[in-house]
Write a structure and sequence with these properties.
Blueprint: H1 2-11, H2 13-16, H3 18-22, H4 28-34, E1 39-45, H5 53-65, E2 70-74, H6 82-87, H7 89-92, E3 100-104, H8 106-109, H9 118-135, E4 140-145, H10 152-155, H11 160-174, E5 177-180, H12 181-191, H13 193-199, H14 208-223
Parallel strand pairs: 1-2, 1-3, 3-4, 4-5
Helix pairs in contact: 5-14, 9-11, 12-13
C-alpha cells in the first residue's frame, strides 16, 4: 500500500518540479555522452551530497547507460555552506576540469550559526558561477534545492525557503538547470508524513531508501538519463 502511494506521488512529481518539465529534453551532459564524448561530473555541496547514497545511484546509472564515459567526483563536504564552497572552488572543483557541476548549499546557508544572509549567499553563488565559466565557458552548471528540514533542524533554519528561492532565482537569471527536490519532498511530507519520516529519519538527511526512491530518480529525470 505504501509503495502504491509512493508510486502515485512520484508519477506526478513533474507537476511540482520545474526541472522535470523545463529539462524534459536532455542535459548538455547527456548530449555530450550520447555523441561519444567522455565527461567529468563534480557534485559539490553539503552533507546532503557528501557521502549521500543518491550520488552513487546516479553514478551507477551513468555507467550503465554510458560505460566508461562518465566520471563522477563527489567534492562535497559535510557541514559546509556556500562561503566554504566559494573559498574551496579552485581546489575541489575547478582542478578536476569538470564538464558538469552540480551545486547545493542552501540547506546550510540558512543555518543560523553560520550567520550568512541571503544576499551574502547569493554573492557566493554568483562568484562560483563566474569562476566556473571563466575556467570553462562550456561548463554546465546545475543548481539543486534539497529537502525541507523538520523539527529542530527547521528551527535552526527558520528562513530556509528564502535561501531556496534565492537559488531558484539565480538559476532562472543565469538560465541554469535547477533540480528542485524541495517541492517533491514537501508533497510527500504533506501526503504521507510517516513515509517522509521513514525516508528522512533524523529530519534533515535522507537515508539510503529516500535517496533511491526520491532524489536519484529526480536527478536522472532532470539530466535525461535512464534509471
Amino acid at each position: 500500500m505504501q509503495r502504491t502511494k509512493l508510486s502515485v506521488i512520484l508519477s506526478i512529481l513533474c507537476l511540482f518540479s520545474a526541472v522535470a518539465c523545463e529539462a524534459a529534453s536532455k542535459s548538455t551532459l547527456v548530449a555530450n555522452l550520447e555523441s561519444g564524448k567522455s565527461q567529468t561530473v563534480v557534485t559539490y555541496g553539503t552533507s546532503l551530497t557528501d557521502g549521500a547514497p543518491w550520488v552513487s545511484e546516479v553514478q551507477a546509472a551513468l555507467e550503465r547507460n554510458y560505460p566508461s564515459k562518465a566520471k563522477l567526483i563527489n567534492s562535497a563536504k559535510s557541514g559546509m555552506w556556500s562561503k566554504w564552497g566559494a573559498e574551496n572552488l579552485d581546489q575541489r572543483v575547478i582542478a578536476n576540469k569538470p564538464d558538469t557541476v552540480i551545486i547545493e548549499f542552501s540547506i546550510n546557508d540558512a543555518y543560523l550559526q553560520y550567520k550568512t544572509s541571503v544576499q551574502q549567499a547569493r554573492g557566493y553563488y554568483e562568484d562560483m558561477i563566474k569562476r566556473l565559466l571563466k575556467a570553462n565557458s562550456r561548463c554546465e552548471i546545475i543548481l539543486m534545492v534539497m529537502n525541507p528540514p523538520i523539527g529542530g533542524n527547521l528551527e535552526q533554519r527558520p528562513k530556509i525557503k528564502d535561501y531556496n528561492q534565492m537559488v531558484r532565482d539565480i538559476a532562472r537569471n543565469h538560465r541554469l538547470m535547477l533540480i528542485d527536490h524541495y517541492l517533491n519532498w514537501e508533497k510527500i511530507l504533506k501526503d504521507d508524513p510517516a513515509l517522509f519520516n521513514k525516508y528522512i529519519p533524523d529530519g534533515i538527511h535522507p537515508a539510503a531508501e529516500g535517496c533511491k526512491m526520491v532524489i536519484a530518480p529526480e536527478v536522472l529525470r532532470a539530466l535525461g538519463v535512464k534509471g
